[in-house]
Amino acid sequence: MNEEARNIITQSRFFRGLTEDSIARIHSMARLKRYRHGEMIFREGDACPGIFIVGNGSVRIFRTAPSAKQHVLHIASSRMLCHCWTKYYPQVKAGCLK
C-alpha cells in the first residue's frame, strides 16, 4: 500500500492515538480508491463494504424521499470517517461532491 493511504489513515481523527503496530495493521487492509465528482460510492441496498476515510474533497450522504427530494444526512470532508450507513439505514446513498 502506498504512502498516501498511510498518511490519510494517520491524519484521520478516528485513528488518532493508535500504536504504530495498529496503524500498520489497518494500512495492510486499506485500499486507496479515487472517485470523480458525482460518482456514487454506495447506493441504496448495497451491502456494507467497510468504512471509508475521505482523503481529499467531500462526500454527501443522503436519502431520496418518495417525493424524489434529496435529504442530506451528512457531509464528510477530508480525513473524516464515512462509515457505511446502509447497515443502519438501507435507503441511504453516498456520492462524491469534490
Describe this structure in words.
The chain is built from two helices and six strands, in the order ααββββββ. It is elongated. The protein starts with a helix and ends with a strand. The chain has two domains: 1-32, no CATH class; 35-98, Jelly Rolls. β3 (58-64) and β4 form a beta hairpin. It is of the alpha+beta class and 98 residues long. α1 (3-11) crosses α2 (20-29). A four-stranded antiparallel beta sheet has the order 1-6-3-4, with no helix packed on it. A two-stranded antiparallel sheet has the order 2-5.
Instruction: Profile the largest sheet.
Output: 4 strands, antiparallel
- Rounded to an integer, what's the Rg over CA atoms? 14 Å
Task: Give the helices and strands as they follow along the chain.
Answer: HHEEEEEE
**Helix percentage:** 10-25%
The CATH superfamily label of the largest domain reads Jelly Rolls
Q: Which fold name fills CATH's third level, the topology of the largest domain?
A: Jelly Rolls
